[in-house]
Amino acid sequence: xxxxxxPVADALATIQRQIEPLHETETVAxxxxxxxxxxxxxxxxxxxxxxxxxxMDGYALRAAEATTDTPLKVVGSALAGxxxxxxxxxxxxxRITTGAKMPAGCDAVIMQEQVQRTDSTIYCQSxxxxxxxxxxxxxxIREGAVILSRGQRLTPIHIGLLASLGKAExxxxxxxxxxxxxxxxxxxxxxxxxxxESQLYDSNRFTLHAMLQRLGVEVLDLGLIADDRDALEHAxxxxxxxxxxxxxxxxxxxxxxxxxxxxMAKLGQIGFWKIAMKxxxxxxxxxxxxxxxxxxxxxxVAALVTMDQIVQPMLRRLAGEHSAQPLQFxxxxxxxxxxxxxxxxxxxxxxxxxxxxxxxEPAGSQSSAVLTSVAKANCFLLLEQDRDTIExxxxxxxxxxxxxxx
Length: 406
Ligand SMILES: Nc1nc2c(c(=O)[nH]1)N[C@H]1C(S)=C(S)[C@@H](COP(=O)(O)OP(=O)(O)OC[C@H]3O[C@@H](n4cnc5c(N)ncnc54)[C@H](O)[C@@H]3O)O[C@H]1N2
Ligand code: MOO
Prior knowledge:
Oligomer: single chain
Pfam families: MoCF_biosynth, MoeA_C, MoeA_N
Cofactor: Mg(2+)
Bound molecules: ligand LQZAQKY5, molybdate ion
CATH topology of the largest domain: Molybdenum Cofactor Biosythetic Enzyme, Chain A
CATH superfamily of the largest domain: MoaB/Mog-like domain
Distance between the termini: 35 Å
CATH architecture of the largest domain: 3-Layer(aba) Sandwich
Structural class: alpha/beta
Shape: elongated
Enzyme class: transferase
CATH class of the largest domain: Alpha Beta
Mean pLDDT: 95
Number of helices: 7
Strand content: 25-35%
Protein name: Molybdopterin molybdenumtransferase
Function: Catalyzes the insertion of molybdate into adenylated molybdopterin with the concomitant release of AMP.
Number of domains: 4
């Protein structure tokens, strides 16, 4: 156990260094593939489009013949799914609809709005160049091209892309299994009667569970565990049997976590850290047999912020996902912002755009017990460790809330 304060970047780097991504894979159907992580690069087995086809409703023709004073005879039609297979004599054209295969001999399409048609003859109203309004075979994707690489998280767009290549299944890493419990004698389950003087509802487990759902991991919810040595040890043993990662909230600050520390020392190697971040200072991290353990602070905002900033990148790496830096922008402080040097602040803020510039300010109370200010916020104000109070108009870094929080 160290009394050192660990800068946020060092905590992140230490965790990333220790974590090895899992390697077990499975094959899933496209409908089950959303948010899964690609395990094997996906190559295109076909060209897309698979054949030259029309981008417009109009007439397929030879561009060289499309002069404004040459009548072109309409010799047939090509519809999507019903190609034209007849001949194309000189000075003729084929009626064509969007997506239909280009008839042999035609090299361009003129939109129907740009022709005059009389019975079975058209007159072009504009000149046409080869390939006008034609989508060429393979112009989107070439057979053999790498479409998705290992470590990509599948979005609705990727799933559409896979379908467009005719792939019904995709090989992904297996889901991470994360065990979750909260700890504290003062906590009561939502839905139950509360003794208002001494109890509060267990909100952390619900916040964290929802965040884990967004990440697409399998959650093993072990519930609310009392401050009792045997109950805690039992919860850890149960979690260690089945989970890649165990996440608990509360019981990691200085005085009140004796059971947790004692049990962890018995079951594995856990370090208790003081991360130089606000909120979220007390944090436990380590190994319990085959599982990783993250002990989050009990204060509701501290639990949420450490989950977002510290645990999220760890879970992503473990699940085989490529790391991606969260989006950050520069904004001007629209009020002065109080801050003490020593810890990096993750203040909950609101940003807006005015006159082409981003402006941001704290969204109410910054107490780590006050969840309502997070509900009003749309970003973190990232105030560097050594920074002091920020004056109105000064530049700060903001990080819009990510998909775990919105
Ligand atoms: N002497 C010191 N005291 C504290 C320090 C310190 O460095 N020295 N750190 C403070 C900070 S910062 C935090 S954060 C908390 C973290 O404490 P724990 O992780 O040990 O958690 P608890 O003390 O059990 O609870 C803190 C707070 O959070 C409420 N809580 C706990 N679990 C839940 C839950 N599941 N849902 C909602 N609310 C929860 C709990 O009732 C307490 O109010 O320690 C400071 N103290
Ligand atoms: O840092 Mo604590 O985590 O202020 O609530």
